[in-house]
Amino acid sequence: LVSVLTQLTQELLSYSTSDRNAPLLELLQLLDRDLTYVSDIVKKALQVKKTGTGDPELLTNAEKLLQIHKPCVTLVGPLITLLPNEDVSLANMASHNLSLLTQLIGSEGKEILNRNYCLIFSTVLKSADSSKQKILLRSLKRLITADKRNLEVARACNDELLDSLNKIKKSAAIEADVGLVGHIDELLQLFG
């Protein structure tokens, strides 16, 4: 299922926008359900590991699921390109899938970021509401901290990202959104 979803999603992205949105949204919804399931199993497994109580086989199952879903790392870039999509449902689903993937892939997210993806993040962050900004900032942070090269790419796009982050931080401070300010401060520290 994972390889089929990955392949179909990548193929649909090559189609013209008018031909791809409906089937792409359906595929992203399938991916979302799948990744949510994996995320739930991983959380339960971590709880078993932490407390020492529960089904120890859950740990093995979680590891197997993560292994099976490794190919999904190739979808991170295409999901980023869908973030500014005019179809709000598609953009929101891409954002949620990106969030789930960056949580699950951890250190597998090597050499994913490029200048274009950083610019997309910068642009989308400016126009998103605060809850979506938090999701995007967490995803960006996970990508940046997954690999030294990703951090270097983000630093190379520093002007655009810094401008966006500082504007959002200023607005969040006015609205007393401490959570959003905290996410931004964490990223600004990474940029050094």
Automatic annotation (TrEMBL):
InterPro entries reported in the protein's UniProt record: ULK4
Superkingdom: Eukaryota
The protein's name: Cullin-associated and neddylation-dissociated protein 1
The organism of origin for this protein: Didymodactylos carnosus
